[in-house]
Design brief:
By secondary structure, this protein is an all-alpha fold. The longest helix has 26 residues. The termini are far apart.
Length: 95
Amino acid sequence: MPQHVSVMQQVGVAALVTAAVAWAVGLARGVRGARAVRGAAAVPATPRATAMPAPAGTRRPRIPRQSVPASESVELTPAERAAFAGLVQRLEGRG
């Protein structure tokens, strides 16, 4: 051990090396697409080139369209309409 290297410098280098190794392992797992399940071995992702093509005449299942519910409306009384008109005029600065 060199005499001019402090203990704190050695601890810092060890921490940086540990962090770099952990990052590299995490990156390698992410690139491989491995999904680790607790208690089970990781299964590597299947490359797209070896994927089986769909048989001729078959189609992908369709995703159902999202439907929007019908808008609701409520009839206002004449007093409520007048109050709303007054509110709009006040907010527009006319009143």
